[in-house]
């Protein structure tokens, strides 16, 4: 609205100046030598200048792609609306971005456009008033039907989906094919795979625990598999302060197996280090998601990896693919540049340009205008989805996820026992419940 008023005022000034000039003795903007009047129109007006504050937490590995895309948006905005857009963009790492963003929003230091984890953040952010109803925006009508609920709350679309995922763990297809291994369906079968790899002097698992969000990945995988098979009421019980992680302590079986059969010095290995090591064959499997595809393929463009569900027990019904929209982009209701911010969000799913963007990020199609062919690992993951061997990413408080990463780092390092991790996560969940009621 502010921008519209500014443009109207500017147009009025231009018109006033033209009228006054025409009333002067020399005819104001005097006729050209051919007798035609010189042009005075909106295109000669000075462009409006807008700086968008962009916060893209955990997307630092995609800085080049996003910065380039934002520049394309700036060119479009200048050409179509005569607005010069500049960007104040931040790309904090995944370990710190969530807390930084929450602090910013709570203190009023609000980005115009920011990323959030759709599954974790949309419900509490909506309750706190941090999200804008975007249901009437052009991009909303383009979303694939199965994606809409994942970026909605109370029937309102509140974010643009970026990373639509089917994930479990990554495996080196060459190693598996060379040894005749297929992804195991149970924990016992995984133990057999581990032994076969060790017999062939291949390290079974890559460990990269320098960043706590990576061991945290065990939490949604184990809880999700168990809640959708043998412990269906676990999350409900935890949300009502009636449950305990002791009820699903079998989640530690796969964690122990991975930790006991992994690469050395995991606390010296970051996510980027892990991507490079995995791409060069340092281990056969990595409990990690396909969001790292771009980083892996930058090291070896010909590397072939697969995606499979992580076995967590000897009940094959708990071996399931996690499906989710993780990263999504949204706009704060407190943005001082709402019109331009909305233009940017719609440009994220531009009919033509977004095909190239999503392909460069190695993301899945999320829009009906996306015509690119999904990547092989995407198709592999969705074979499981097609067989109903999948679940929607479990709704676990973000504080619990954050704490689980730190606790599982300490668990690997033998600074915390299983019982201490359970006690820690139980308390964190109860604290999150109490905070949500305030």
TrEMBL record:
Keyword Signal among record annotations: yes
Keyword Signal recorded: yes
Region (Disordered): 24-45
UniProt xrefs under InterPro entries: Bact_solute-bd_prot1, SBP
Keywords linked to the UniProt accession: Signal
Signal peptide: 1-23
Pfam families to which the protein is assigned, alphabetical: SBP_bac_1
Domain of life of the source: Bacteria
Annotated protein name in UniProt: Extracellular solute-binding protein
Organism classification: Bacteria, Bacillati, Bacillota, Bacilli, Bacillales
């Amino acid at each position: 609205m502010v921008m519209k008023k500014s443009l109207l005022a500017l147009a009025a000034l231009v018109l006033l100046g033209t009228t006054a000039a025409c009333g002067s003795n020399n005819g104001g903007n005097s006729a050209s030598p051919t007798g035609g009047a010189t042009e005075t129109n909106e295109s000669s007006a000075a462009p409006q200048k807008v700086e968008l504050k962009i916060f893209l937490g955990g997307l630092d590995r995609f800085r080049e792609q996003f910065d380039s895309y934002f520049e394309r948006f700036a060119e479009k905005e200048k050409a179509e609306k005569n607005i010069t857009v500049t960007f104040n963009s931040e790309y904090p790492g995944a370990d710190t971005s969530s807390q930084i963003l929450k602090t910013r929003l709570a203190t009023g230091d609000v980005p115009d456009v920011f990323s959030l984890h759709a599954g974790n953040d949309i419900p509490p952010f909506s309750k706190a008033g941090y999200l804008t109803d975007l249901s009437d925006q052009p991009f909303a009508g383009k979303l694939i039907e199965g994606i809409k609920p994942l970026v909605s709350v109370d029937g309102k679309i509140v974010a643009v989906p970026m990373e639509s995922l089917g994930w479990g763990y990554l495996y080196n297809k060459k190693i598996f094919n060379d040894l005749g291994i297929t992804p195991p369906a149970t924990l016992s079968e995984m133990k057999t795979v581990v032994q076969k790899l060790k017999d062939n002097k291949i390290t079974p698992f890559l460990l990269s625990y320098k960043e706590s969000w990576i061991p945290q990945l065990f939490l949604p995988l184990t809880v999700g598999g168990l809640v959708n098979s043998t412990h269906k009421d676990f999350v409900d019980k935890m949300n009502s302060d009636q449950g305990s992680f002791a009820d699903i302590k079998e989640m530690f079986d796969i964690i122990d197996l991975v930790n006991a059969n992994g690469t050395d010095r995991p606390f010296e290995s970051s996510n980027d280090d892990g991507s490079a090591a995995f791409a060069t064959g340092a281990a056969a499997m990595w409990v990690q998601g396909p969001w790292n595809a771009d980083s892996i393929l930058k090291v070896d463009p010909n590397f072939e990896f697969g995606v499979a569900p992580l076995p967590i027990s000897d009940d094959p019904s708990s071996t399931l693919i996690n499906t989710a929209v993780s990263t999504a982009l949204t706009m704060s209701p407190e943005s001082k540049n709402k019109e331009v911010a909305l233009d940017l969000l719609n440009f994220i799913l531009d009919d033509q340009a977004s095909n190239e963007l999503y392909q460069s990020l190695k993301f899945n199609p999320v829009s009906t205008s996306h015509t690119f062919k999904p990547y092989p690992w995407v198709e592999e993951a969705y074979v499981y989805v097609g067989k109903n061997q999948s679940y929607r990413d479990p709704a676990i408080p973000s504080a619990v996820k954050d704490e689980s990463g730190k606790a599982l780092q300490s668990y690997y390092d033998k600074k915390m026992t299983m019982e201490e991790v359970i006690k820690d996560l139980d308390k964190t969940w109860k604290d999150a419940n109490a905070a949500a009621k305030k």
